[in-house]
Specification:
This protein is an alpha/beta fold. It contains 18 helices and 6 strands. The chain is about 55% helix and about 5% strand.
Amino acid sequence: MKILNYIHELKDNDLMSDCLRAVVAGLQTKAEVYVATRKDDVRKMLDEHHPDIIHIHGAWDYNAYKLMLSVQKQGYAVVLSPQFELGIYSMRHEQKLRKKVETIHYQKWMVQHAEALIAVSDEEKNELLALGWQKRIDVAQSSVLDNSVTLDTQCPLLLKIYAKVIDSRYRKLMSDSEKEAVSSLIHVGMAHDETMPLLDSERILTLRNLRPEQWRRILLFGDDEDIRGIISAGAQKMQVEIPSIDTSKIWRYPVEKPKVKGLLPDKKLNSGSRPSEKKINNTIDGDSEELRQITIMLVNARTLLRSGQMSVRHLADLYEVIKYLDYDEDRLVTITKELKMRKFLRRMLQVLADKVYLEEGFQPDGPVNDRTTRKIESRIFST
């Protein structure tokens, strides 16, 4: 692991500087650790070392804010240790007016947008929680501030917190090959007929070349999107061995916007509007059970998508019914026209083609690939 520490100034006989020096000395035996005190130094170290974590120490430093803006745009993970500088006494009695202005201008934003805060004591954690700006707060007690704490206990805990941050942001770290592997595994895992070739040679090679750390991210994705069983089924069909990784023991922060678990409902409408549900039921009254099922699932998918709760599991369910049920495709198009959701159907078909490899011969209507389609893909796969 590579950690880049930033502090605006290292001083002699200064408590924060002494804390950082002690931590760096302890961590350097277990990881690659670098220290920068100027933005220019940071830029140089980013180019040379590409750290996994950027750890900003202290508060009320405008240069740290500008640095955080820049590195987050580049995809780096930033954690923040305020070092008691956001405590109640400091906020109320030390340069109160200046800090009020700086809070509005940048300091609150830094706390809110950090991947996590690392406090040096339980007391500091409680004060940070009282601010209400950030819930992701862990404690790594300082060996400089507490004689009962040693570097042998502080440094491994810091490394665990860094790993927690990395595992919690795994989606941002997933490569194109890992995303392609997820699509391939869903496509194969949902297949009813295994007599036909399920994947081309390039996609098979991608699956076979996955490294353990890549599988780790794929399995975490599978847990959060409720497709772990599908991934396992796909790997088994392709005779690809999944490394033994117990994701339940991986320390992570809670998902901020968890998806709805379980199958996409195919019997009961969840549109949230009784007049809307009445119109839908009237439209599909007398149609085949298969058409009713697909229509209800499409309506429920749209409702879940609007609330940000549609999972990849739900997309896989749509894939299965659209591909494998025997239904009147022309009638489905007519139904979606009457319900003013044909455009939604066509966009979902594009998503299914892109992400689960739904073949052209199974598409009941022409896919649409526009800006809204790409937003749908992002909402399902990236959040």
